[in-house]
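My current task is to audit a protein record that another person submitted. I have pasted the whole thing underneath without changing anything:
***
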Amino acid sequence: MKPLTFIYSHENVFQGVKQESSQHAIRKSDKDANPLFEQLVFDEAYLPKFRELFFDAQAEVTSAVSRYMRDIPAEPEYFETQDFSKDRDYTFSLLMPDDFDMHMAKPCDIKIKQFLIAYIMYRWLETKLPEESAIYMERAGSVLSEAKNLLERRLNPIRRKHRLW
């Protein structure tokens, strides 16, 4: 079995969301042509909301890759969502079969980070611009599916019904 460890830092994902929301908001205005930049940018003023959405996104990823999750004994510790000094980063390990194509680890890592950002943007825009949040929801579903498919890549493809998978 091949172990894979993925680490997504709080700061790195937050900066990705902030950049994505800024790029999205720069072009938006209300019906009176007033810019919506201040309302749409996900910045430091919303750190508690970011933490909540970051945990939600982690739950989605964990569920999607649970087939390969490596059982790591956790120390008995109380988990507190509001404690910003702990559990800031998202780290998980997967135990992949020996025939897993390790070249797919980096693309999978990239797709998971894209998912985290898209999912948080979807949830952020859900109440502000529901029609536009659908774009991020679709993107999040798409990249998470791609990440799962990358985890299924093997060095020796399995032949089923005269096709290689």
Q: What stands out?
A: The chain has one domain: 2-164. Residues 130-151 form the longest helix (22 residues).
